[in-house]
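Section 3.1: Structural characterization of target chains.
Under the original work plan, the team committed to producing a structural model for every single-chain target entering the pipeline before any wet-lab resources were allocated. The record below documents one such target. The sequence was received from the expression subgroup and is listed exactly as submitted; it comprises 509 residues.
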Amino acid sequence: MRLLSPTDKDFPVILSQNAAENIDFSFLGKIGQQSYLSKFLTSNPETLRFRQTLFRDIMENEKLIDFFDELDKKIYDIITFEQMGRQMRKDSENGDLLCSFRELKFFMDCIDLITAAKNEYSHITSPSLLAFFDRAKDISSQTWYMNTKSYINKLDESLREIRSITIGINLDAQLTPLEAGIVSINKKTFSTNSVFDKLFSKQEKDPNFICISPIASRELKNSGVSMQILNTKLYSAINSIVSGALKKIKNVLYDETHRAANFLIYLHDEIKFITCATTYILSIKAKGLPLCIPEISPKYEIKSLYNPNICSYIKSANIVKNDATFDNDGKIFILTGANSGGKSVYLRAIGAAQVLFQLGLPIPAKSAKMNICTEIFTQFGSKVTDKIGGRFENECKEVLKIYKEVTENSLVLFDELFASTNAYEGAIIAAKVLKRFAVVGAKCLYTTHMHDLAEKIDEINSIPNIKSHADTLCAEIHDGVCTYKILRKRESAGSYAEEIFKKYGFEEI
């Protein structure tokens, strides 16, 4: 079984090499890395609906967020002790017994946690969650499991009661130590009966539990060879004392339990993904900002979209939201505007929304209808490092890769490309690239300061039989102040210059 897909067959998405860095998915934690995104992105509508139902349940039952977080930690403990056990088997025949015991204990804790969640969330509709709960319930009701759990709990209680050990040392006639060993493991701690003990604590009357003189100080625990040896010997002693009981479990029940535990280990990456995703959901909801699960549709309309990355440093009330639409009148948009006007923030918001949608997650918007992309390409001028040939040449090389791979189902996000050359040459090259996208039918958003490029809209749209028409967007400035609103209209370069001229107090002559 799987939590994030109804089938083992899936349809991956091509994600541009530096997309994670360009768009910035730090709000997703570990799964915001390129490798995780590429692993979990899907273009399968069935898989997306499957995940959307899961995350809709989570959004309606926020306690499930704590459930997955705790489950993730417990499965990590299972994996840790399983790996430790494999290492210890190299050292001794029974060296892994205690690790096997801990592995079983954490597995049973996981089953208890899942079955408790099944009882608490009776109105869940997600097929994956229901199947997950049923799997744990089935395991918990089997005789072998109940017998193992009873035995493990009793043994665990005995191990938890260990509070001290008695060490015996044999001496020769000159009182030189000849050999030493652990005599017993006790449920009672030792006392020194020091002056401090006599003044402030209960004195130990049993002479067998009075320490005459300590043989190693607390400071040696982490660095001293003596305590390291003692720890090793103590582990071996406990292992030998309980080995009979642990061998019984291992020989009779361990294999069955280990097979059952494999389904949790198999799902650990998916549970980690869900845990990181739910943290994102919780943080957005805590700020009172909207989240929505997009409808899979031929239309592309997002209402009140915002960039989740700015939530960490801008008050919720001050976050400007914008709409995003790709339609028959415009699937290729050239976005112009002043510096710090919100162009790149808007571009990243669209990129984040598309990736979140194809991860099956809610997106930062009020409502959305979106279509699935099989390729998501990004190229940011500021991210192109100068190699042999200079920045402009390297930008051309990077864009050429996209130029050759782009399809009708691609989303392309370009930010300030070809700004390293003059505006005339940059606009010519950019227009040729966009003409290719128009013929193929791709969706594209291109932010730029090159107003010459915006003037080539009619030229692009005049190509016969194009599948994607081009249109313009602009970052609004009102009375010399950036509003961070993105408007669907054509703006001349001169109007921005006039606004900036007024902003800094220059007077008309």
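The two ends are 75 Å apart (CA to CA).
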